[in-house]
From TrEMBL:
Belongs to the glutaminase family. This is glutaminase. It catalyses: L-glutamine + H2O = L-glutamate + NH4(+). The lineage of its organism: Eukaryota, Fungi, Dikarya, Ascomycota, Pezizomycotina. Keywords: Hydrolase. One of its GO terms (biological process) is L-glutamine catabolic process. The chain holds residues 1 to 309 of 464 of the full protein. GO terms for molecular function: glutaminase activity. Homotetramer. Signal peptide: none annotated. It comes from the Eukaryota. Its EC number is 3.5.1.2.
Length: 309
């Protein structure tokens, strides 16, 4: 008997396609020119079964969704205690690109690893303080490819576009360096962070990556234990409270599962022990989250009873 899920996913896309609000990210040239008609959704079970609909082969840069997985790598490479010295776990209540307030260690520790300041600090912990940009990028690319189950690549055009206009992130990194929250060269931290954000994925990749988190860090198809279970618990907890930035409260109320968004228009959701979901549509709301992507996840949560509460 054929699964009803593919037809259901198509119905979800048709129900959300009429939403016209939002704009693609304007500060990264390639993203600003994105085809805003693209719309896709995928659902991956912890047994490795995957379903998808719409533009499910269309690739886009992972952007901030990478932060969830790089947080796990930072924990693996530096240990949770050191990560917590550098990066908090509290929601910032502000925008994803908020700037730490001073070089005073007591006031500029990044609030969490999902905002840019915390993500840059997490990136700087991957491999180690003396690693090169290439070494950190290689470790991250290998890990994300294992999570997706196929070889991923950095989109060099997106990387160059974002590097051209990286003043805000460079400023954040210099404050973090002065306050001792990163130990490597601030420019290397930002270059490597932007390269991790420029890795291209599609919704099927993202759903499988989310399903790996739901599966205690074990990739559902390969069976590889990519992250320790305790790292995954930490990541999912912080995704729940911080993954959607200053829309996290509304997300938990309306969708109710750990999530992470990205400014190319991707979103992942992870229902521990069951399934990962991914949605893609380039138009963003004022908080940097995909308008149709959020609507897709809200509908699926209602229809499929995904809410954890
Ligand atoms: O650093 C930036 O601004 C981008 N590379 C990532 C921001 C992002 O994806 C925010 N999430 N919605």
């Amino acid at each position: 008997m054929e699964s009803p899920i593919p037809d259901y996913l198509n119905r979800v896309l048709e129900a959300t396609r009429p939403l016209e609000s939002g704009q693609p990210a304007g500060y990264i040239e390639t993203l600003a020119k994105a085809d805003t008609s693209k719309l896709a959704v995928a659902l991956a079970m912890v047994d490795g079964t995957i379903y998808s609909a719409g533009d499910d082969q269309v690739e886009f840069s992972i952007q901030s969704i990478s932060k969830a997985f790089v947080y796990a790598l930072a924990i693996d490479d530096a240990g949770l205690d050191k990560v917590l010295e550098k990066i908090g776990v509290e929601p910032s209540g502000g925008a994803y690109n908020g700037i730490p307030v001073s070089v005073d260690r007591s006031t500029s520790r990044p609030m969490n690893p999902m905002i840019n300041a915390g993500a840059i600090a997490a990136h700087a912990l991957v491999v180690g303080p003396n690693a090169t940009v290439e070494e950190r990028t290689d470790r991250i690319l290998k890990a994300l490819s294992r999570l997706a189950g196929r070889q991923l690549h950095v989109d060099e055009t997106v990387y160059e576009d974002e590097l051209k206009d990286s003043g805000r992130n460079m400023g954040i990194a210099y404050i973090l360096k002065a306050a001792g929250f990163i130990e490597c060269d601030p420019q290397d931290a930002v270059k490597g962070y932007i390269r991790q954000c420029a890795i291209n994925v599609n919704v099927r990749d993202l759903a499988m990556m989310a399903a790996t988190l739901c599966n205690g860090g074990k990739q559902p198809i390969s069976g590889d234990q990519i992250f320790p279970q305790q790292s995954v618990r930490q990541v999912l907890s912080v995704m729940t409270t911080c993954g959607m930035y200053d829309a996290a409260g509304t997300w938990v109320a309306n969708v109710g599962i750990p999530a992470k968004s990205g400014v190319a228009g991707g979103i992942i959701g992870a229902l521990p022990g069951q399934l990962g979901i991914a949605a893609f549509s380039p138009k963003l709301d004022k908080k940097g989250n995909s308008v149709r992507g959020v609507a897709i996840c809200e509908k699926m949560s209602r229809d499929m009873g995904l809410h954890m509460m």
